[in-house]
């Protein structure tokens, strides 16, 4: 029974978010899962920062959210990506000219119906970019302290759209600061915006993220099974009842002698329809594999997948073994494979 899990059994052992060992790889493919995971913390900071514009700095420092992750949230929500950040860096002296009296560069903007001024502390800098801000690739998963450069960009992204420079460097899109301290409006805006962002980015990143999960499982199986087993990524199983030229495809195929275990891997932090398609085919695939003495196993995890309980229930019912993504669960998959294929050479 440890192999045939129900949905409730599976959820008890699921990790739902990418494990630390793979966070760096995942971040390089898509930062959206990390942002979805920290969305509530981000929203809380905005809700608690409604008294004055710069209050947000002390709230960030008192929170558990890394400043570079907070900044990345603003970049995504304002759709102010790497190219626009570089453009702002190159045009900064023109967008924010030095004040003749104070000899400083300031952001003049409206907040709660009043005019405010923020004096830039680090900008301009040479080579302003996502890398310098530590909001891309490997850097995004490493917490950074709140420095003056982060503060400057946070203020621009929050209030640039209601500033005297809103007509320059595409700053008109940077207006989230007007919602600070307004709980209902923030919840509605941020969550709706992330639904849009996820729809745009999930499809593009699903393949690369799926490959990361698949490769990890394949490598784990290779490390735990001896040389009498063959482990193939993106493999196919030849079946009499299936197209003989192409075979039935699996994310991972494990062979020993004449017996085979086909493994499907799905780890989705944001919900999409891939798991529904797998579920629609699951019962027929199991029947065809079982008919020829082979087995099907599923590695299923991720908060997005668990939002589609009906599909996961179907997969649990239409498999010989279902496990989550943690190391202990993958050991259960190894145990299943060894148990089913151990006498296949006889």
What features would you describe in this structure?
It is a single chain. With 346 residues, the chain is an alpha/beta fold. The chain has 14 helices and seven strands. The protein has two domains: 145 residues, Trna Endonuclease, Chain: A, domain 1, CATH 3.40.1350; 132 residues, no CATH class. The strands form two sheets. The protein has a five-stranded mixed sheet, sandwiched between helices. A two-stranded antiparallel ribbon has the order 1-2. Helix 4 packs antiparallel against helix 10 and helix 11 packs parallel to helix 13. The chain is elongated. The two termini are 26 Å apart.
Using the alpha-carbon principal axes, give the shape. Answer: elongated
In order across it, which strands form the biggest sheet?
Answer: 3-4-5-6-7
Global mean pLDDT: 88
Number of strands: 7
pLDDT < 50 stretches: none
CATH hierarchy class name of the largest domain? Alpha Beta
Q: Fraction of residues in helices?
A: 40-55%
Give the name of the CATH architecture of the largest domain. 3-Layer(aba) Sandwich
């Amino acid at each position: 029974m440890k192999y045939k899990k129900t949905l409730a059994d599976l959820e008890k052992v699921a990790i739902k978010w990418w494990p630390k060992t793979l966070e760096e790889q995942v971040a390089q493919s898509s930062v959206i899962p990390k942002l979805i995971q920290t969305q509530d913390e981000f929203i809380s900071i905005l809700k608690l920062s409604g008294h004055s514009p710069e209050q947000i700095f002390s709230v960030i420092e008192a929170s558990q959210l890394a400043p570079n992750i907070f900044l990345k949230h603003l970049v995504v929500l304002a759709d102010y990506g790497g190219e626009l950040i570089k453009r702002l860096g190159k045009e900064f002296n023109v967008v924010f000219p030095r004040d003749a009296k104070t000899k400083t560069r300031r952001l003049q903007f409206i907040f709660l119906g009043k005019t405010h001024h923020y004096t830039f502390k680090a900008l301009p800098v040479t080579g302003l970019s996502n890398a310098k801000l530590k909001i891309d690739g490997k850097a995004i998963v490493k917490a950074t302290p709140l420095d003056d450069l982060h503060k400057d960009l946070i203020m621009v992204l929050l209030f640039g759209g209601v500033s005297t420079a809103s007509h320059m460097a595409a700053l008109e899109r940077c207006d989230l600061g007007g919602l600070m301290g307004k709980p209902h409006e923030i919840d509605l805006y941020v969550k709706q915006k992330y639904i849009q962002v996820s729809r745009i980015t999930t499809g593009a990143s699903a393949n690369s993220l799926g490959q990361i999960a698949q490769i990890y499982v394949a490598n784990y199986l290779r490390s735990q099974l001896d040389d009498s087993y063959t482990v193939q990524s993106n493999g196919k199983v030849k079946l009499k009842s299936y197209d003989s030229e192409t075979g039935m495809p699996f994310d991972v195929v494990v062979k020993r002698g004449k017996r085979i275990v086909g493994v499907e891997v799905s780890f989705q932090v944001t919900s999409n329809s891939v798991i529904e398609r797998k579920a629609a085919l699951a019962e027929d695939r199991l029947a065809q594999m079982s008919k020829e003495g082979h087995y099907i196993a599923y590695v299923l995890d991720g908060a997005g997948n668990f939002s589609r309980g009906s599909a996961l229930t179907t997969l649990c019912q239409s498999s010989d073994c279902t496990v989550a993504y943690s190391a202990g669960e993958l050991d259960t998959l190894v145990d299943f494979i060894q148990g089913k294929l151990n006498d296949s050479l006889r």
